[in-house]
Design goal:
Length: about 400
């Protein structure tokens, strides 16, 4: 350990100051010609999206959006993964300042969805939870065979945050309910087939694609980008072993009105011959937080008829109320069991689905009595404003410039 530390110190001390600074940045921002590149730079921490990361991403995007020399933006993750989503450790050690982080992350989600210039997510490895919020809304999102995506929030006693109730509710059939309640993983081509990415590019072509993107110099950027990515991409075909080949069963089970009815339907399917694939589904939903499951299902169902802004404002309320344990501390218990003590044995409260009542859910979803506590983003499509001067003026912003 001592020798390793000494060698590391020698290597670091011999690095140019600009390299050391670059390695310490949580987001690396670069520009080559008309391209602007953002790299999530916390590989040892799974490129989680902290408040600082969200703030830097939003500020850079805001700057590029009004820069006539910046014609498109790419985002990727350093190391072997794209992003594991939100900073669970930070949520577990909840303080008032955490609401500032949450607020800035939601603002970032709105900003990405409504961005004026072409943006491209180059995704490899894990993209979970909030990581999907960075890749799915992009004009172009490219995945490889090494990508796997999931939304494990209900398994942690949480809910679909950061626009995920909007994203999942717009997937084909009842796939959104399935992914949200089960936290199942989709891999590579499945991610494209499900509608969570636009292109599949084999990993051995990934570097050449990125290199080619940086050589673009054409006024009609969006069509040029699409044509270029198309040249590197491969058609997606799903084999019969994929869960996406079971959509008729998924649609039947997950269209039921309540979580209890969905569970009963899954159990009935599990008893049929040839349905071995559904046993892990059954196991997962039985292990998840009862209140997390019910909040997730209601949020997706509401998302089907809500605008993006309505979904984000709703999710922000749920997040704030969950962090403040309005009706349950399942989120903290879920994080404890998963990443703190790692005993994988959470003690949920309420412990069973029948003990979660509609009145409790109403408290979580209810708009705040004070309008200033709401997420201050446009509520109508014709309204439009950007990051600058809005986030900083909110009551949640505690930073000083």
């Amino acid at each position: 350990m001592g020798i390793t530390y000494l060698l590391s110190s020698i290597i670091i001390s011999s690095m140019p100051p600009e390299v050391i600074k670059r390695n310490r940045e949580v987001v690396i921002a670069e520009g080559i010609g008309p391209a602007r590149m953002l790299t999530l730079n916390r590989p040892k921490h799974l490129n989680v999206i902290s408040g600082k990361v969200a703030l830097m991403l939003a500020q850079e995007l805001d700057k590029y959006e009004i820069d006539d020399n910046a014609e498109f933006v790419t985002i990727k993750g350093a190391g072997r993964i794209f992003s594991a989503g939100g900073d669970l450790q930070r949520k577990h050690n909840f303080e008032g300042v955490c609401l500032e982080d949450v607020y800035s992350i939601y603002w970032l989600c709105y900003h990405i969805h409504t961005y004026k210039k072409p943006h491209i997510a180059l995704v490899h490895g894990l993209s979970a939870g909030g990581g999907l919020s960075l890749m799915v809304p992009m004009k172009f999102s490219v995945v490889t065979e090494k990508v796997f995506c999931s939304t494990p929030e209900a398994n942690l006693g949480y809910h679909l945050d950061c626009d995920l109730s909007y994203i999942l509710s717009h997937l084909p059939g009842r796939l959104g309910e399935y992914l949200g309640l089960i936290g199942a993983k989709l891999k590579g081509k499945e991610v494209v087939a499900a509608g969570l990415a636009t292109h599949f590019v084999p990993s051995h072509k990934e570097f050449e694609l990125e290199k080619s993107l940086l050589s673009i110099n054409n006024a009609d950027q969006e069509d040029t980008i699409r044509s270029l990515i198309d040249k590197f991409s491969t058609n997606v075909q799903i084999d019969e072993t994929s869960v996406l080949s079971k959509l008729s069963i998924i649609d039947d089970c997950f269209s039921r009105e309540t979580v209890e009815e969905i569970l009963d339907s899954i159990e009935a399917e599990a008893g049929k011959k040839g349905n071995d694939w559904i046993m892990p589904v059954l196991k997962s939903i039985k292990k998840a937080s009862p209140i997390g499951l019910k909040i997730t299902l209601r949020s997706i169902r509401e998302g089907r008829t809500q605008t993006l802004s309505e979904c984000l404002r709703k999710e922000f309320r749920i997040t704030k109320n969950t962090l403040q344990t309005i009706i349950s501390d399942d989120l903290y218990e879920g994080i404890r069991a998963a990443i703190i003590d790692k005993d994988k044995s959470p003690k949920w409260n309420p412990s069973t689905l029948d003990k979660v009542h509609d009145e409790q859910l109403d408290l979580i979803f209810k708009p705040f009595d004070e309008h200033d506590l709401e997420l201050q983003i446009p509520t109508k499509e014709e309204e439009y404003y950007r990051w600058g001067g809005k986030y900083e003026n909110s009551g949640y912003c505690l930073r000083t410039k």
